[in-house]
Amino acid sequence: MITIEDVTTGAHYAGLVDLPIVVHSSLRSFGCVEGGADTVIDGLLELGCTVVVPTFTYDFRLQPPCGQRLARNGWRYDDTLLGMRSDVFSPARNYISPEMGVIPSALLRRPNRTRSSHPANSMAALGPLANEIIDTQTYLDVYGPFQKVAELGGKFVLMGVGLTSLTAIHLAEKLSGRELFRRWAKGTTGELIEIAVGSCSGGFDSLNDSIEPIESTVIVGDSCWRVLPAELALCRFTDAISREPAITHCKSPKCQRCPDAIAGGPILAEARG
Q1: Number of structural domains found in the chain
Q2: Is position 40 within any domain?
Q3: Is residue 270 part of a domain?
Q4: Of 70, 266, 245, 82, which Cα lies nearest the Cα of 181?
Q5: What average pLDDT does the segment 18-40 reach?
Q6: pLDDT digits (tens, 9 = 90+) for 100-144
Q7: CA–CA gap between residue 148 and residue 134 (Å, rounded)
Q8: Would residue 269 count as lying in a domain?
């Protein structure tokens, strides 16, 4: 049975004390955890961490307005049914897409957490630097929180998951020169807004060699934590993508997003009617 002491010990050995950290996780990877996801969160908070997690939602997206069907945007517009919810996104609510996992869901239920207002790719944080980090995200600067964590000397922590779960690699794609994909969604007052989102992450494990020299690991229960210094990891991912753009391809011949991302992303100066 994993306890809060096991989590704090693991986080201490991983060098996470008093740092902002972006956490991607699989609670199942730990084995049996006393108190569940809250134990993991509490253990990190006890060490002074600011815990940042993705809290994405996908049901508020809509078709683009007339004349805004951007070319090379990773989307066959006529094939996609969007707008599954009739209400609007609110950062005050705890709604989250189920596939995000139980640890982000548990953090989102905390009354003192901070959540951004991006209707598709919101992020939430808990800890002393939560507001400073989350406030950097806008509808188009969607990965501002990852950049801020890097500037603050923070780390990316993969708890029982691989690089295909590391959303910050989308920031490295942007830093390498790719334009982020554009989508449209209901804003907090129901208006149609343009937002930036990431590409396909199915090929991100191909980047493992680029961060092997800077990665450290620690075992907590049955979970292997992979810990990356955020700023250096972003530099290495960006360099790898710049040198070999096709390295991020998921290899699926049916993927809509990988070819367009590798080609540079949407052409913002032109739109198709």
Answers
A1: 1
A2: yes
A3: no
A4: 266
A5: 97
A6: 999 999 999 999 999 999 999 999 999 999 999 999 999 999 999
A7: 9
A8: no
